[in-house]
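Re: folding output
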Amino acid sequence: MARRSFAVRLVSFAVSFPITVIVILFAISNREMVPMRLWPLPTEIEAPLYILVLVCVGLGFLLGGGIAWAGELGHKTRAARAERRAEDLERELSVMRIREEELRARAGLKGEPAVPLLEAGRS
């Protein structure tokens, strides 16, 4: 794996450091115990406010990431299918070029034809 450049590390630090400071300040400022009830359950849990908020934010982040990942699956599948189709077409084109050369050799034609048969896509 390639090493990250200094600029990438600097930007990463510049973004993550303030977020870390804000999370720590939030946790220090909101240490009071808060009761949490989930409607159908008869139990009540008491936990510090910062834990409840951070757990909810973390679960929301994971849920959003899962939804984004699921949304990309269709695009990735179509892209993979298109790549396979392009590879198949390239193989077919190379087979057709070989057949064209064989037919020309058998017919006794030398050099390039006046009207190229399979010139489209030749590089």
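--- second protein (sequence, then structure) ---
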Amino acid sequence: MARDDTTAPSVQIRRRVKAGAEQIFDLWTKPDLMVRWMSPFPGAVDCKASCDLRPGGAFSLVMSSADSSREVTGTYVQIDRPRKLVFTWIGPLTDNVNTLVTLELIPRGDETDLVLTHERLPTPAIHEGHTKGWGHILDHLAAAISEGF
């Protein structure tokens, strides 16, 4: 039976970030910057990243901690620099199902409202884990910005 994407579980996280939308967009799309902060694990960040930033272009992430490693792949669906980035997200924690992430960046003076929506999650059971994981990723993003990346 096919999954109904209109009722599939989703995660949405909103944060105000002390940086401009251009800087945040670069942190999400440049592999040399992504590796400095992209990880769902609390504490130390270890990441390998590659991306072909164009609609239909692929990206790959391997995010690791001392205890675990997660590999995620995806394809860029929409790129509207520096306001919006939409990409698929496929990995073991989504049961290798093609899910969809939308990153919206809304400038607010010298800060930016960031809205991350992860849709089409395969089961309600993984909602909590993805909420925590994306929360840690956004914490690492804020820390990278405060450290001057």
